[in-house]
Amino acid sequence: MQWESIIPYTGEIILNKKLNSGIIKPIFLKKYLRHELKHAEQFQIMARYCAGKAKSTEEGLCQFRKMLGEKLYNDPSIGFLDKKYYTRVINSDGVITENNPLFEKAEAYIKAFKEYPDMSKALEKQSDQSFWDYIINLYKVKKSYKSNLLEKEAVSASKNK
Are 157 and 35 contacting, i.e. CB atoms less than 8 angstroms apart? Predict the structure, then answer.
């Protein structure tokens, strides 16, 4: 069951209503919000990098949307982008170009995003797949997920006070 997630197209964080109540809320909500806020920051940095690389906010956001669609839906033409939100971020924080201290980090985020494993596909057992092959594949995907830069930083952020 998922606690919450960030929607990279809009920068929104969606909370799981079942878990956002009772005793669980005060104990875990702060931790998981820090985790998702780190992901939001990572996506903002990627959008700013795309705008800097394209030398245009509009074109950069178009490339960013295509990158998200390609990874999340296997189709670069799918997906909308809250241009107002990301334009505000870029106008506020600026584009990321080669002389920006975040340039290398932004490139690493883009690479990590493209390599981010699809956990939903890993959980689906293929009909021709043995049980042990399924378990081995699941282990490999989970290991890849946990070692991905985006996830490692978000987990670290969730542990900080």
Answer: yes
Coil, helix or strand at residue 92: helix
Enter the pTM of the model: 0.85
pLDDT digits (tens, 9 = 90+) for 125-161: 777 888 888 888 888 888 999 999 999 999 999 988 6
Is 64 within 8 Å of 50 (Cβ atoms)?
yes
Q: Do 100 and 90 contact (CB within 8 A), yes or no?
A: no
DSSP one-letter code for 48: H
Q: Which two tokens stand for residue 88?
A: 């505000």
Does residue 97 contact residue 60 with C-beta atoms inside 8 Å? no
In angstroms and rounded to an integer, the radius of gyration of the C-alpha atoms of the chain is 17
Torsion on CA atoms 161, 94, 14, 32, rounded to nearest 10: -20
- What 3-state class would DSSP assign to 91? helix
